[in-house]
Amino acid sequence: MTRRSRTALPPAPTFGEPVPQPEAPQVLDFLARRRSASAMTLGGPGPSSEEIETLIRLASRVPDHGKLSPWRFVVLAGEHKAAFADRLEALARTRGDDRAVGKLGKLRTPPACIAVISRPREADIREWEQVLSAGAVCTTLLYAASAMGFGANWITDWYAYDAEACAVLGLSAAEKVAGFILIGEAGEPPRERERPLPEALVSTWTA
Q1: How far apart are CA 66 and CA 149, in angstroms?
Q2: Between residues 6 and 20, the one the model is more confident about
Q3: What is the pLDDT of residues 144-157, one digit of tens each?
């Protein structure tokens, strides 16, 4: 798959324009076999700046009750991602936490990362719905990167929850990391994992 095919998308519709929703069996085929790639298998080349812009454009189309955009993006790539990981490593070492240092491998290995930041707004829309929208952004980024032909993985880990680490990323006290979406070329096809049986999770409500 070439770079050109990865970014050949229709133009974004204009406000108020009818947006037909045709059947898309290829999307169903994709979802039936979708699988996250191991972060440690993701190598270069990563997505270009144009491809990252496309991914963010697609992810910003998620359901968003109240049109609040209760999320934002922090792009980490190249030497800047390495510098962020170095700052986190220094933080962990000041605490003597070798385990936390070891967990940074998933962040260091892939060439690109898009951090999705949840930022609930003061509004009539419940905060829970706004947080769910941020989760939908993570899912869409993951799926879109895979559909482009990249390997992708959604992680959090300790630096998503640590106050000092979040400060390094530039978060305010009211913001939280919804996920780090790691993107690169998958060094090997991901293997299928165990899946839940739908019938064990579904009930039908009756009056």
Answers
A1: 33
A2: 20
A3: 999 999 999 999 99
User: Mind listing the pLDDT tens digit for each residue in 30-74?
Assistant: 999 999 999 999 999 999 999 999 999 999 999 999 999 999 999
Cα separation, 115 vs 84, whole angstroms: 12
DSSP for 30-76? HHHH--PPPGGGEESS---HHHHHHHHHHHTTS--TTS---EEEEEE
CA 69 to each of CA 66, 83, 118, 131, 176: distance values in angstroms, whole numbers, following the listed order:
8, 28, 9, 11, 14
Q: Is 176 helix (H, G, I), strand (E, B) or coil?
A: strand
The helix (run of H) or strand (run of E) holding residue 88 is helix 78-94
- 179 three-state secondary structure: strand
Task: Give the whole-angstrom CA distance, residue 159 versus residue 157.
Answer: 6
Decide if 159 contacts 85 (C-beta within 8 A). no
Chain-centroid distance of CA 206 in Å reads 37
Among 139, 141, 79, residue whose Cα is nearest residue 108: 79
Q: Which two tokens stand for residue 204?
A: 């039908």
Integer Cα distance of 72 and 116 in angstroms? 6
Other Cβ atoms less than 10 A from the Cβ of 106: the count is 19
Return the ∠ at Cα 159 (arms to 157 and 165), rounded to 5°.
Answer: 175
Statement: the pTM of the whole predicted model exceeds 0.90 = yes
In 10 A of CB 53, how many CB atoms? 13
